[in-house]
């Protein structure tokens, strides 16, 4: 069974409370539980981690290189300026998909640029929480193990 690490960055622990008109009303705990079940349906094991601290996310990326098969990351605001997270992703051999709940390209100007995207296999934006499911499916397809696709 392939293993996926889901990394959520700063303020995503506030899902369900923070700007529900943009991010929805489902909490991070509810989302992680639902995604764990969804991943199982695709023959994948999902581990979830959230941190508001850049160094913790970098440590998880480094650890992931030896204990998971792929990463889904919503770097939150780190998307736009964290060259340290970008370099951590570039330093590993596992496929990474960047995810954003809102369409960062349709929001404030400072959100339009991702320093993370160039070192990922793809980016999913603006599809709400369903973007996480699409990232799981995309990794499954990348692994080449899903006959349904």
Characterization of this structure:
- The chain is of the alpha/beta class.
- It has one domain (2-78, 93-143): Rossmann fold (3-Layer(aba) Sandwich), CATH 3.40.50.9100.
- 36% of the residues lie in helices and 19% in strands.
- It has 5 helices and 5 strands; from the N terminus they run E-H-H-E-H-E-H-E-E-H.
- It has helices at 20-23, 28-41, 54-67, 83-90, 130-143; strands at residues 2-8, 44-50, 70-74, 96-100, 122-125.
- It has a 5-stranded parallel sheet, sandwiched between helices.
- Strand 3 (70-74), helix 4 and strand 4 (96-100) form a beta-alpha-beta unit.
- Helix 3 packs parallel to helix 4.
- The chain is globular.
- The two termini are 18 Å apart.
- The mean pLDDT is 93.
Task: Itemize the secondary structure elements and their pairings.
Layout: E1 2-8, H1 20-23, H2 28-41, E2 44-50, H3 54-67, E3 70-74, H4 83-90, E4 96-100, E5 122-125, H5 130-143
Parallel strand pairs: 1-2, 1-3, 3-4, 4-5
Helix pairs in contact: 3-4
């Amino acid at each position: 069974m392939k293993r996926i690490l889901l990394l959520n960055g700063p303020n995503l622990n506030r899902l369900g409370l923070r700007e529900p008109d943009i991010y929805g009303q489902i909490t991070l705990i509810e989302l992680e539980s639902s995604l764990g079940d969804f991943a199982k349906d695709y023959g994948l094991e999902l581990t979830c981690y959230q941190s508001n601290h850049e160094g913790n996310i970098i440590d998880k990326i480094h650890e992931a290189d030896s204990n998971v098969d792929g990463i889904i990351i919503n770097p939150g605001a780190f998307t736009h300026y964290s060259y340290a997270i970008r370099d951590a992703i570039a330093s590993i051999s596992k496929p990474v998909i960047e995810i954003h709940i809102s369409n960062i390209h349709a929001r404030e100007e400072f959100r339009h640029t991702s320093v993370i995207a160039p070192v990922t296999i793809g980016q999913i934006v603006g599809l709400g929480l369903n973007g996480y499911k699409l990232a799981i499916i995309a990794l499954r397809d990348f692994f080449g193990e899903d006959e349904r696709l």
